[in-house]
Amino acid sequence: MLKKLFIFTMLLALGVLPSTFAQQIKAVSFNIRNSKNSSIDAENSWHLRRDAVIDFIRDEKPDVICLQDALIDQLSYIDNSFRKKYRRIGLGADNGISKGSYNAIYYDTASVELSWHTTRWLSKTPRQTSNGWDEQKRRTVTIALFRDKYTNKQFYVFNTHLGALNTIAYPESIKLLNELIDSYAKQNTPVILAGCFNATDLEPLLIQFYNNDIMSARRTAEKTDFRNTYNAFGKGEQSMIDHIFIRNISVQPFKTIVKNYGAKFISDHYPVYIVFSL
């Protein structure tokens, strides 16, 4: 036993631990449902489910959290709940600072280190605060390069929220996302593309990602599920529209989280997550 412990300690010191000891990283994608619709959401209003969202994060302990459709008051509540654990990046879509919807990324400072980040708009002028093609709503993608503190390896995260399929903006946004991924994530760097895509991952427009070797984690994971992710607070249509796409990453489980955390629904979307090693 002492001999095995000695060997393990030496391998750790040399940074050559076998893959069976590789650090696993958990990445969550979650459309949180914005807080501005309290009168419509009634018993599902943000102030009645916000503590359940905090309990969900505490329970799952993700290393990276990709949130969509969040407003600054919601992010501030999460910030205040996790000041010693998570940091947040991403800009508000409406003014490039704090107004509008966020595609925020939280990361656990104990397990991953932020190397670089930026926000781009899904539009003809992605470096400027701008509307996308024929859409009235401004949409963004938050981009981050992280370093896994355990393996010292890097990986990119792209977090976004697409609109309706029947717009010019939808295929143009996919084209832009492919271009951004190719522009930043070079030399076989692992990539995660997370978000609410308002379409199944077999939608022909989304299959353009597959042509760029960006695959659906749901369909390539060793263990997976095919649950609907949009739940409409249990009052209507359900669909599978929240996805995590990957490139140069091997995913162990993909999972849709439907657990009750003290509120019947923590959002009108269920979170999804992947676990992977670098």
Characterise the protein shown here.
By secondary structure, this protein is of the alpha+beta class. It has a single domain (25-277), classed as Endonuclease/exonuclease/phosphatase (Deoxyribonuclease I, Chain A). It has helices spanning 2-14, 38-41, 46-60, 72-81, 169-184, 207-210, 217-220; strands at 24-31, 64-68, 86-89, 105-108, 112-121, 140-148, 154-161, 191-196, 215-216, 242-247, 251-256, 272-277. The chain has a six-stranded mixed sheet. A six-stranded mixed sheet has the order 5-6-7-8-10-9. The longest helix has 16 residues, at 169-184. The protein is globular and about 50 Å long. The chain starts with a helix and ends with a strand. Mean pLDDT is 92; it is low at 1-12 and 14-20.
Give a concise summary.
This protein is α+β, with helices and mostly antiparallel strands and 278 residues long.
Topology:
Blueprint: H1 2-14, E1 24-31, H2 38-41, H3 46-60, E2 64-68, H4 72-81, E3 86-89, E4 105-108, E5 112-121, E6 140-148, E7 154-161, H5 169-184, E8 191-196, H6 207-210, E9 215-216, H7 217-220, E10 242-247, E11 251-256, E12 272-277
Parallel strand pairs: 1-2, 7-8
Antiparallel strand pairs: 1-12, 2-4, 3-4, 5-6, 6-7, 8-10, 9-10, 11-12
Cα(first) to Cα(last) distance is 28 Å
Over the alpha carbons, how many angstroms does the gyration radius reach?
Answer: 19 Å
* Low-pLDDT regions: 1-12, 14-20
Q: Beta-strand level of the residues, as a percent range?
A: 25-35%
Task: Give the count of helical stretches.
Answer: 7
* CATH class category: Alpha Beta
Q: Share of helix among residues? A: 10-25%
Biggest sheet, spatial arrangement of strands: 3-4-2-1-12-11
CATH architecture: 4-Layer Sandwich
CATH topology: Deoxyribonuclease I, Chain A
Mean pLDDT across all residues, rounded?
92
Total beta-strand segments: 12
Number of domains: 1
